[in-house]
Amino acid sequence: MKVKRLQSILLTALCTVFVLCLLAAPSHAASLAKITKLKGSATDTTITLTWEKKSGITAYQVFQYDKSAKKWVKKATSTTNKATLKKLSPATLYTYKVRSYKKTSSGYIYSPYSSNLTVKTKLSKPKTPKATATNNSVTIKWSAVKKAQGYQVEFYDYTKKAWVRKKTVTSTSATITSLASVKSYKFRIRAYNKTEKTVYSPYSETVYFTTTPNAVKKLKIDKVSENKITLSWDKVSKATGYYIYVNEHTKDCKGTSYKQSKNTKNISTVIENKNTATIS
Description:
By secondary structure, the protein is mainly β.
């Protein structure tokens, strides 16, 4: 009887110790707090993730979802609350989640995963465009940007002191019209991609150009002598001087080959409000 009673007491004691051990044992699921405030910023080939810092942890693990394999892949381990993923493709969506872990004497304890975050990389910066101007327009050309679906052309408005969008195109060139003659302008371009989420490239370098003077009109011969010709024409607005070109076909004046008149290369006689010249 005493033996049975002793066995009962020992069994009760063992059960009590076992229950106490269970209560004292750490819960892996709830021992580390879930990662919160996960944010991301992107360039054309990188994504930088940040999140709220947690105390009492060893490090963080960053996972990226692989769409083709349909699984999560660990991409980085960080001891700070920041990680940068590199060698990514431009204008591409990437999805991430983060968890923390703590190394203990008995193994590793992991936090729950953060909420998923999807970030889209940007487009590469366009190379510097080239501009060809006339008296009232400019044609701009540039190299294609990988994965760009279109481009925005912006001119600087000196009156408003702000950049103004002039044109949106899907090709790698644009012509801007209705410009003033002999006026300086500056412009820049950027690329965009609107698949699922709109992203832009950085702006190109700013390009400066000046439109040309208007064409000379009503050119006429006023006087002809044995070895001189006197010409006149309508004055061109904003012009400070004129160059006169002479046709080399002196007999019949046919053809399109012209050369600059030697004695009018700098035509000082027509610089200041004069629109006549004598060729000898």
